[in-house]
Design goal:
4 domains, mainly alpha, about 0% strand, single chain
């Protein structure tokens, strides 16, 4: 029954009581037995970004299911509504061969998240470049006709659901795209301060003793300053900027404050920071960027936010590693260590 399902799922998904009853029923059928099996193996249920290993497992699961059923493409399997003439046959094959179980095999995550990830990976509409001015106007018209029915709009525009939803949320706001004014920057800082204070109060900061509270707030401030902030809410508070702009600007503001206005990636300091970054990532010997403790890496580079270091690493790999898109994370690090590091050290 529903209460039992909530109670059992809560061990694996602490926020399960905030999920709708219909979703909980689906999770009880699709996920609970898998979660218990993973627990026996000592494997925790995961959330957040998918690792390269998990992406590869999804590809493997999809390929095997296509072989078993004879369905001729991942797109037909995952976007069946695009093929109305084959829809009945594909749905019957998915039911007969237990598509839910097969797709989630070997991946300790809720089935729904695995399904969404698979759709993103195999959607031929997902990587179509920038929106033209004409496409933006068409998107506005479709939204006026169909509201937030992103599935319908995505089919009409041959773009992914996520793409059209995010683009509309961007263009519907009267966002500025030029330099930030002093007033806008102050609004951003006040908005971030408000959401951090709200979070501290929600986590029970007021119930601590004065000495514990002081120590707790120092720790929370350091973490909360740039991790998992509600950027949509912050963007709404600023009013004149899209949420991604707010996130990027806040990283810049925070970096300037933490480094007292100095730029750790300029001149000789910049060379040394890149050297430290490559060496530290190589020492970690991780297979995927999701496994990197970016907080630790940022301390090796200087007192800067983790988002700043991640952005600098991205620029480094794009500018220095040929065909980096086709390489694994560990291959990128090895290339930087073996080919780029000696050059940087010589320049230094």
């Amino acid at each position: 029954d529903l209460d039992t399902a909530k109670q059992e799922l809560e061990e694996f998904i602490p926020h399960v009581r905030n999920i709708s009853d219909s979703s909980i029923r689906k999770m009880a059928g699709r996920d609970l037995a898998r979660f218990k099996q993973f627990k026996k193996q000592g494997i925790a249920v995961k959330f957040g970004r998918f690792s390269q290993k998990e992406n590869n497992q999804i590809r493997k699961n999809i390929e095997e299911f296509l072989l078993i059923t004879g369905i001729d493409s991942a797109e037909k399997l995952l976007f069946t509504s695009r093929y109305p003439e084959d829809k009945e046959t594909i749905n019957r094959l998915k039911a007969d061969h237990l598509f839910c179980e097969k797709l989630s095999e070997g991946i300790p995550r809720p089935w729904r998240l695995i399904y969404y990830r698979a759709r993103k990976m195999f959607d031929s509409h997902n990587y179509k470049g920038r929106y033209s001015t004409e496409e933006k106007e068409i998107l506005k018209k479709y939204h006026a006709l169909h509201g937030n029915n992103w599935k319908k709009i995505s089919e009409l525009m041959s773009r992914s659901n996520l793409s059209v939803a995010m683009k509309y949320s961007e263009i519907k706001s009267a966002a500025n795209y030029g330099p930030w004014s002093k007033e806008e920057t102050q609004k951003l800082m006040r908005a971030v301060e408000e959401v951090i204070k709200k979070r501290i109060e929600k986590e029970g900061g007021n119930s601590l003793s004065s000495s514990d509270k002081s120590h707790r707030e120092i720790l929370i401030d350091r973490e909360a300053l740039y991790q998992k902030l509600p950027w949509t809410e912050i963007g709404d508070k600023v009013g004149t900027r899209y949420w991604r702009q707010c996130k990027q600007k806040w990283t810049t503001v925070l970096t300037n404050k933490m480094t007292k206005g100095q730029q750790p990636y300029r001149g000789t300091k910049g060379l040394q920071a890149k050297i430290n970054l490559i060496k530290r990532l190589h020492e970690m010997k991780v297979e995927d960027d999701n496994e990197v403790d970016w907080e630790e890496v940022s301390s090796a580079v200087g007192d800067v936010p983790r988002a700043y270091v991640q952005a600098k690493f991205y620029k480094l790999k794009v500018s220095c590693v040929p065909s980096w898109q086709k390489k694994t994370f560990s291959e990128i690090i090895d290339y930087l260590f073996e080919e780029k590091l000696p050059e940087l050290e010589e320049n230094l």
